[in-house]
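seq as requested:
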Amino acid sequence: MTGSPSDSPIRYGGTDESERPVARSISRGMLNRCPRCGTGKLFRAFLKPVDNCPVCGEEIFHQRADDLPPYLVIFVLGHIIVGGYMMTDMAFNLPMWVHLAIWAPITVIAALAIIQPIKGGVIGLQWALRMHGFGGHDDSPDEWDQGNGRS
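struct tokens:
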């Protein structure tokens, strides 16, 4: 007995969870909007996320963006700023203090400009992948892990 291509696959066990497209969730987070509904504000302060979405009520308080957003900012800006410095240095023979006067403020301003959208994107990624409590499960270590000295 063969099935037609239009037949939906059979899924065993668990409840059918709603789909969470990764790209859409990250883009909503980068726009500082709730990754679930896309309309509620994601941040109540510069880098402090809201506890719950004011529109759909999605819990955001358990997110753990931790060190990934600053790492991504350093990674992205490092390539842009060093590349810009090297191109400027090749084109113009400027003293080091001029380069410092140009590139230090650009680096600080650019880092402050992109840290919030990157953190929102990381929160959107965590929500889409059901990480750190966004999937309705507990993230604490299992008894088996604790019993074997792992944490």
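The helical segments are 22-30, 68-91, 96-128, 143-147.
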